[in-house]
Design goal:
single chain, Immunoglobulin-like, 2 domains, 4-stranded antiparallel beta sheet, transmembrane helix
Length: 326
C-alpha cells in the first residue's frame, strides 16, 4: 500500500476515535448528573423529614406549654413575689446602712425591670420564665453579697456604738466626778470667801453738830446737823487679806436716796454699781480695829425721819445700822 493510501486511511480513522471519546465523556456526565440528582433527592427527603420532625416537636412543645401553662402561672407568681421581697430587703438594708446606695439602686432597677416584664399581660413560655428565673438567681446572689457586706458594716457599727456608749458613760462618770469636785471646790471657795469676809460690830451712827469751841457734839435735830458719823469695830479675821483697805459709808435718807457729794462715789457690789456717801482707808492686819467714818452734807438740808447706814469693805456689805433725826 502506498503512502498516500496510508495517510487517507489514517484521516478516516481519526474522527472515529474522537467520536468515541466524546461519547465516553457524555456518558460520564450523564452518570454524574444522575448521581448528583440522586443525592439531591436524598437530601430533599432528609430535609422534608427534618421539617416534619420539627413540626411534630413544635406541636409537642405547644402541647407541653398548654399542659404547663397553669404551672408557669404559679412560677410567675412565685417569681414576682421573690422579686418584691428582694426589693424590700434592699430597702431594709439601705435603711440601716447607705454605704452601697448607688450600686444597690442600680440592682433595684434591674429587679424592677424584670418585675415589670412579668407583670405585663404578655403570655410567657416556660423557656422565658426559666430565663427570667436565672436572671433573678443572679440578682439574688448579688443581693446576698450586698446584704452580707452591710450586715458586716452594721456589726462593726454596733461595736463602735457600744464602745462609744461605754466611752460616753466613762466620760459622763469622769465629768460627773469633775463637776462634783468643781462644786465642792466652789463651795469651799465660797466658804473661804465667806470666812474671809470682814464684819463690823458695835456700830453706832448719829448726827453731829459743831460747838462754839470747834468740837462736835451729838445732835438729833435735822436742821442742826453738820456731820454724820458711824463708829464701829472691824472684826478680827485670819482668813482675810491683810493690808490697806477702804471702808465705805452709805447713808440712805428716809425717802430712799443715798447722801453723796460727788457722782464719782461708786463701788461695785455683786455686779451692781452702788453709790456711797464717803470712805476711810485703814491698815488692816487681821486684828480687830476701831474705825469711824464721817459724812459732811454741806449745804444739803436733811429731812426728818429714819436714816439707814450701810458699811462696805472688799466689795461686800459688812454691817448695817440706823439713826433718827427729828
Amino acid at each position: 500500500m502506498s503512502e498516500i493510501q496510508k495517510d487517507n486511511q489514517k484521516e478516516k480513522e481519526a474522527p472515529k476515535k474522537r467520536d468515541g471519546v466524546y461519547i465516553f465523556v457524555i456518558l460520564l456526565l450523564i452518570a454524574g448528573l444522575a448521581g448528583f440528582g440522586f443525592l439531591i433527592s436524598n437530601k430533599n427527603k432528609a430535609l422534608e423529614n427534618c421539617s416534619l420532625e420539627k413540626s411534630a416537636l413544635e406541636a409537642d412543645m405547644a402541647g407541653m406549654e398548654d399542659m404547663l401553662s397553669e404551672h408557669i402561672d404559679v412560677q410567675k407568681g412565685d417569681l414576682k413575689s421573690e422579686l418584691r421581697n428582694m426589693l424590700a430587703m434592699y430597702e431594709d438594708a439601705l435603711a440601716t446602712n447607705d454605704t452601697h446606695e448607688d450600686s444597690i439602686r442600680a440592682q433595684q432597677e434591674k429587679i424592677q425591670s424584670i418585675l415589670n416584664e412579668l407583670e405585663s399581660n404578655k403570655k410567657r413560655s416556660a423557656r422565658e420564665i426559666y430565663k427570667l428565673k436565672k436572671e433573678t438567681e443572679t440578682l439574688r446572689a448579688i443581693m446576698k453579697d450586698y446584704v452580707r457586706q452591710i450586715d458586716s458594716l452594721n456589726t462593726v457599727n454596733v461595736g463602735l456604738r457600744t464602745e462609744l456608749t461605754d466611752k460616753t458613760t466613762q466620760l459622763s462618770s469622769v465629768t460627773g466626778e469633775r463637776d462634783a469636785l468643781q462644786e465642792r471646790t466652789s463651795n469651799l471657795e465660797s466658804k473661804v470667801a465667806a470666812g474671809a469676809r470682814l464684819s463690823a460690830y458695835n456700830i453706832y451712827s448719829t448726827g453731829l453738830k459743831y460747838k462754839l469751841d470747834g468740837t462736835l457734839k451729838e445732835n438729833s435735830r435735822a436742821g442742826k446737823i453738820d456731820k454724820i458719823r458711824s463708829c464701829f469695830t472691824v472684826s478680827e479675821n485670819s482668813l482675810a487679806a491683810a493690808g490697806s483697805k477702804f471702808i465705805y459709808l452709805q447713808v440712805i435718807t428716809p425717802d430712799g436716796k443715798v447722801l453723796h457729794t460727788r457722782s464719782s462715789n461708786v463701788i461695785n457690789i455683786d455686779g451692781v454699781n452702788v453709790l456711797y456717801s464717803d470712805r476711810k482707808e485703814i491698815d488692816y492686819q487681821n486684828q480687830s480695829i476701831d474705825v469711824c467714818v464721817y459724812y459732811e452734807p454741806g449745804n444739803e438740808e436733811l429731812a426728818k425721819g429714819n436714816y439707814i447706814v450701810k458699811l462696805y469693805a472688799d466689795a461686800a456689805l459688812i454691817g448695817k445700822d440706823s439713826f433718827t433725826l427729828k
